[in-house]
Amino acid sequence: MSHNTFGHLFRVTTFGESHGPAIGCVVDGCPPGIALSEADIQRDLDRRRPGTSKFVTQRQEPDQVRILSGVFQDERMKQQVTTGTPIALLIENVDARSKDYTDIRDKFRPGHADFTYLAKYGVRDYRGGGRQSARETASRVAAGAIARKVLDLLYKKVTVRGALIQIGTQKISRSQWDWKEVAKNPFFCPDPTAIAPWTDYLEKLRKKGSSCGAIVEVVADGIPAGLGAPIYAKLDAEIAGALMSINAVKGVEIGDGMAAAALTGEENADEMRKGKNGPKFLSNHGGGVMGGISTGQQIVARFAVKPTSSILNPRKTVDVQGRETEILTKGRHDPCVGIRAVPVGEAMLACVLADHALRHRGQVG
Predict the structure, then answer these.
(1) Is pLDDT larger for residue 198 or for residue 157?
(2) CB neighbour list of residue 239: distance below 8 Å, 6 or more residues apart
(3) 230: three-class secondary structure by DSSP
(4) Residue 50: its pLDDT value, please?
(5) CA–CA separation, 103 vs 206, rounded Å?
(6) Most buried among 82, 243, 260, 309, using CB within 10 Å?
(7) 295 in helix, strand or coil?
């Protein structure tokens, strides 16, 4: 299978399946001399890890990462640093229950890639979706932790963060937005007044064996103007592609996104005045990107995650022989997979920005 690698100078190749012995990634293009330990990566993996609340899958995976290559420390060094060679990361699977899928091995799960995967390759791993499983995103989060290190090396004060701003029909109030609240609740939600109604909403869905979708917002601060290109390497296009590649994502927007269609030219234009170190923007409808190149403003993107397709309620389908049947999916699944997509979105944004930062340095110095 091809297309397991993304990025140009900062390149990430992921490997492994949901119910295989392990998953992981190889990160190539990381500059040498950057302090990097397993603890640096583990912090982000713990945020994505399953089993952390009743609103995510109860699969108990510690997601303990091991660095297999690409770092070095001898007696003269105070810390372990990258060597500039490929960094191989391994995360073992310890709590896969393949027997949960035995009864449906020959049935196509509606909403999943079972049918399309088999149509393309002629073979598929039915155990939790195999390679198509969202379990693969742990590898992306691990790579994202390294990308953050690269951004810190180049720009010092870069922050990449995300938040869940809607689950199902439940939206948050922008007036209550507080980034400090994101780390205080299991939803990565910046609105403390939404926690109680969201809990009630998801609890009812969970008891019904159903699921809901979500919208995640990711932002980056501290990115200078100039990253990207005006034609085939537009920064916003590559951010959109990276976010769209996350499992279950069905829509991406940059800045005002779809809402920009309802604005006038006067309303949409990000006006400028003279600032201390260049133009000062009076708004950010473009999400920090103009003409495919970063403006130096906050980069803002949102993505929509569809409802988890694995639900306990029967759905109509066909089997591999083409016979009509019904299916319900046993096992452990997220009632709202968008919750754990927050650190994944952060990681993908960080990887794109690190890649573009290195490309920018290589092209213009």
Answers:
(1) 198
(2) 252, 254, 289, 299, 301, 348, 349, 352
(3) coil
(4) 66
(5) 22
(6) 243
(7) strand
CA distances from 191 to 187, 257, 266 (A): 10, 22, 31
Side-chain half-sphere exposure of 333, counting CA atoms within 13 A:
25
pLDDT (tens digit, 9 = 90+) per residue, 233-244?
Answer: 999 999 999 999
Q: How far apart, in Å, are the Cα atoms of 295 and each of 82, 353, 355?
A: 30, 13, 17
From CA 54, how far away is CA 199, in angstroms rounded?
A: 10
CB 144, CB 348: distance < 8 Å: yes
Q: Are 57 and 332 in contact (CB under 8 A)?
A: yes
Q: Which amino acid is at 102?
A: T
Cross-strand bridge partners of residue 24 = 15, 90
Name the token pair of 134.
């969202």
H or E segment to which residue 165 belongs = strand 159-167
3-state DSSP assignment of residue 312: coil
Amino acid at 346: E
**Predicted model pTM:** 0.94
Task: Decide: residue 270, CB within 10 A, 0-12 exposed, 13-18 middle, 19+ buried.
Answer: middle
How far apart are alpha carbons 27 and 39 in whole angstroms? 17
In whole angstroms, give the CA distance from residue 209 to residue 232. Answer: 44
Tokens coding 112? 């999943």
Side-chain half-sphere exposure of 336, counting CA atoms within 13 A: 31
pLDDT-derived band at 75 (thresholds 50, 70, 90) equals confident
Contact in structure between 320 and 117 (CB atoms under 8 Å): no
Q: Indicate the residue type of 291.
A: G
Main-chain phi, psi angles of 82, to 5 degrees: -70, 150
Sequence length of the chain is 365
Cβ–Cβ < 8 Å for 332, 128: no
- Is the distance from CB of 167 to CB of 214 less than 8 angstroms? yes
